[in-house]
Amino acid sequence: MLTVIGETLIDEVVSDTASMRAHVGGSPMNVAVGLARLGHPAQFVGRYGDDDYGRMIQQHLRDNAVPFPVRPDTAPTSVATARLDPAGGASYDFQLVWDLPGLARQKDTLLDGSTLLHTGSIATMLAPGADDVLALVTSAHPLVTVTYDPNCRPTIIRDAVFARQQAEKFVALADVVKASDEDLQWLYPDRTPEESARAWLDAGPAVVVVTRGSKGPWGVCRAGEVSVPAPPTSVVDTVGAGDSFMAALLGSLVDSGLDGAHHRDALLRITREQLTGMLQYAARAAAITVSRPGANPPTRDEMVHAA
Q1: Rounded to the nearest 10 degrees, what angle do helices 241-255 and 272-290 cross at?
Q2: Which of 48, 82, 132, 274 has the greatest number of CB atoms lying within 10 Å of its CB?
């Protein structure tokens, strides 16, 4: 079992020319769904309200065979509203609640049987829940592989200094970190994303990966650095591409037998060839996702046919 902890929310899209559209979103939730579609049992730990939007989230997770052990609470389900202007530009309004009290006390039951714990995005930045997530990751580190994607949201967490400090807490606990070049440029504007990734590797992870859009992903491990080209594809939109990449990166890690704290030393010895294969697999998943609308990660069968 793999465990993903983080936010889920409803994305509302509002315009003057069409009726409001709502769909389930949230970066960590997308990763859990992506893992399940790739054939890896994954549970999602996050909050949602006891309301119509919360029931949408529950149904989406059921439809993708993702267990969700945390029950709904009395606060409203989080919502991100995108308002489109006539030219298609979007302005965003967020109504977010991120709070999972007592999470660390539940770790023995929540993580029972898990070999990997993934987190990131708003859940690791927004109070008060971010402190609970950090406590859970700290206590879980001796037991599982820890993976992290900061997936920065400057429109929500505007203080880059705070975000950088918060991200570094999770990087120090993580075995595998993925960040976009935009994330790293915002967090560390005075150096290149690759320089920032190298610095993060020195903080403890076995692997740090930087996604770079059409340039393809780049990664660094103790054996060296690798990059792979982005597969050719027709881009419909880029929604969920980074989350599909993250899910496939983790799926490849599991397929390689490198998940679980007892494999931490082996993960630290990962070769450039192994990392190259993982990046190629993850880039293929992202390419499939951008070829169709929305956060719609590929299945294992789709990945086989696209190979």
Answers
A1: 140
A2: 48
Select from 294, 287, 281 the least CA-distant residue to 252. Answer: 281
Q: Which two tokens stand for residue 44?
A: 């999602």
Beta strands 207-211 and 218-221: pairing type? Answer: antiparallel
The set of residues, in sequence order, having a beta carbon less than 8 Å from that of 115 and lying 6+ positions away, is 1, 2, 144, 145, 254, 259, 260
Query: In whole angstroms, what is the distance from residue 157 CA to residue 177 CA?
Result: 20
Backbone phi and psi for residue 84, each to the nearest 5 degrees, phi listed first: -95, 135
Query: CB of 8 within 8 A of CB of 48?
Result: yes
Instruction: Report how far apart, in Å, the C-alpha atoms of 227 and of each of 172, 180, 279, 296 are.
Output: 23, 14, 8, 25
| pLDDT, tens digit, 9 for 90 and up, residues 18-41 | 677 888 999 999 999 999 999 999
Angle (CA) 245-183-204 rounded to 5° is: 80
Q: How far apart are CA 34 and CA 32, in angstroms?
A: 5
Cβ atoms of residues 193 and 270 within 8 Å? no
- The amino acid present at 7, given as its one-letter code, is E
Please identify which residue in the block is written with the tokens 């050719």. 232
Identify whether the C-beta of residue 6 lies closer than 8 Å to the C-beta of residue 121: yes
The 10s digit of each residue's pLDDT in 60-87 is 999 999 999 999 999 999 998 877 666 5
pTM listed for this prediction? 0.95
16 pLDDT above the threshold of 80: no
Q: Where are the extended beta strands (E) located within the chain?
A: 2-5, 9-14, 21-25, 42-45, 79-84, 90-95, 116-120, 145-149, 176-180, 207-211, 218-221, 224-227
Whether 212 contacts 256, CB under 8 Å: no
Identity at 232, one-letter amino acid code: P
- Classify each residue of 38-52 as buried b or exposed e, where b means 16 or more C-beta atoms within 10 Å of its C-beta: bebebbbbbbbbeee
pLDDT tens digit string along 206-256? Answer: 999 999 999 999 999 999 999 999 999 988 878 889 999 999 999 999 999
